[in-house]
UniProtKB/TrEMBL annotation:
This is N-acylneuraminate cytidylyltransferase. Pathway: Amino-sugar metabolism; N-acetylneuraminate metabolism. Homotetramer. CDD domains: CMP-NeuAc_Synthase (cd02513), HAD_KDO-like (cd01630). One of its GO terms (molecular function) is hydrolase activity, acting on ester bonds. Coiled coil: none annotated. It catalyses: an N-acylneuraminate + CTP = a CMP-N-acyl-beta-neuraminate + diphosphate. It comes from Caldicellulosiruptor acetigenus 6A. Transmembrane segments: none annotated. Belongs to the KdsC family. InterPro entries: CMP-NeuNAc_synthase, Cytidylyl_trans, HAD-like_sf, HAD_sf, KdsC_fam, Nucleotide-diphossugar_trans. Its EC number is 2.7.7.43.
Length: 398
């Protein structure tokens, strides 16, 4: 790559006047501003030197500033390029002529509405761009669908012969522009006034990246897909850890319960447990995994609940949880590396740092969530243990 000797920059247009979804570019998608996904990809790309965000919105500007990367530069845009009718090409040319702060040779146009773009895609695409000696490149996905067009009152096939209908695995399909990114040279775009021109190559992205966010309906589809993909990747990364687990240990308050303090009219202390967690314990025990509760509280309610759901080892009123756990694994004949532990507060940190698989509920203290291997989707008392039991059994079964 260095032999090509050209500076590559990324350009992300982010207008504030979206009509279908107000301030779409900074609306939260799975708890992150949409534009952060594009920034992640561009900033993480090893070949891109600077990332320019062009916006007419003070709110978008402030949001991008909070991303806090020295690689990111925020620039304005002329009023005529911030209208509904303005083309992306007009925004790029306006940037080159009036706002760019440095000389560059190649430009990667990235659209914030395609949050499936990743740094590895840009790395691979830029490498292919130079290897193929093309003038421009666009991102695409392959779709295996049969296309028809209208002809008068009838339809005609476009990409296949109905008399010789191919099987899906034998059908090449066709390439569809997904709008995630475009690569071209400064010389080429100034000459053609178009984002792609000359000899055009392509970079094929995963089929799920076909979706762009233009309407609110797209938002829900993309958000669901991103959650699914993220969870699958996390599961794959955790597979090795989970396969070693022989003991599932946990705190009680904030894990098996919601951490709340409830009292009856007579002043009796009550706790709220989740029945799904009890079924989860039953599932992992059938898979041959031992279970334990280690809590600093000495409560008869916890003792009775542990007995009801069949917890193998119960330790109440414990101040040094790591010491108790160490003695337990010695007794069982396993190592701490074969223990999964669920904890939610600072008194669990020592244990969480020393076990093979550390877990926190999504409403755990921030200090805890920063150090664990996995943060659950569910909150304490709302199915955290069942979620982990299902995960362990699923990954062990694979």
């Amino acid at each position: 790559m260095e032999s090509h000797g050209g500076k590559i920059i990324a350009f992300i247009p982010a207008r504030g006047g979206s009509k279908s979804i107000p301030l779409k570019n900074i609306k939260l998608l799975n708890n992150r501003p949409l534009i952060y996904y594009a920034l992640d990809a561009a900033v993480g790309c090893k070949y891109i030197k600077s990332v320019y965000v062009s916006t007419d919105s003070q709110q978008i500007k402030e949001c991008v500033q909070n991303y806090k990367s020295g690689k990111v530069k925020i620039v304005g845009r002329s009023p005529e390029t911030a209208t509904d009718e303005a083309t992306t090409e007009s925004v790029i040319l306006d940037f080159i002529y009036n706002y760019c702060e440095e000389e560059f040779d190649y430009l990667v146009l990235i659209q914030a509405t395609s949050p499936f773009l990743e740094s590895k895609h840009l790395d691979e695409a830029i490498e292919k761009y130079f290897k193929t000696n093309c003038d421009s490149m666009l991102s695409v996905v392959r779709q295996k669908r049969f296309i028809w067009d209208t002809k008068g009152n009838y339809v005609v096939p476009v990409n296949y012969d109905p008399a010789k209908r191919p099987r899906r695995q034998e059908f090449k399909g066709f390439l569809v522009e997904n709008g995630a990114f475009y690569i071209t040279s400064k010389v080429q775009i100034l000459k053609s006034k178009c984002r792609i021109s000359g000899k055009i190559s392509y970079y094929e992205m995963p089929e799920y990246s076909y979706f762009e966010i233009d309407e609110i309906e797209d938002w829900f589809i993309v958000e669901t897909l991103i959650s699914k993909i993220k969870r699958e990747r996390i599961y794959e990364e955790l597979r090795e850890k989970v396969n070693k687990i022989k003991l599932l240990a946990m705190d009680c308050d904030g894990v098996l319960t919601d951490g709340g303090m409830y009292y009856s009219e007579k002043g009796e202390e009550l706790k709220k447990f989740n029945t799904r967690d009890g079924m989860g314990i039953s599932i992992v025990k059938k898979a041959g995994i031992l279970t334990a509760i280690i809590t600093s509280e000495d409560s008869e309610i916890v003792r009775r609940r542990a007995e009801k759901i069949g917890i193998d080892y119960v330790f109440l009123g414990i101040k040094n949880k790591l010491d108790i756990l160490f003695r337990l694994v010695q007794k069982i004949g396993i190592s701490l590396n074969e223990v999964a532990y669920i904890g939610d507060d600072i008194n669990d940190i020592d244990v969480l740092k020393n076990v093979g698989f550390s877990i926190a509920p999504n409403d755990a203290s921030e200090e805890v969530k920063k150090i664990v291997d996995y943060v659950t989707v569910n909150s304490g008392g709302n199915g955290v243990v069942r979620e982990i039991c299902d995960m362990i059994c699923l990954l062990k079964a694979d």
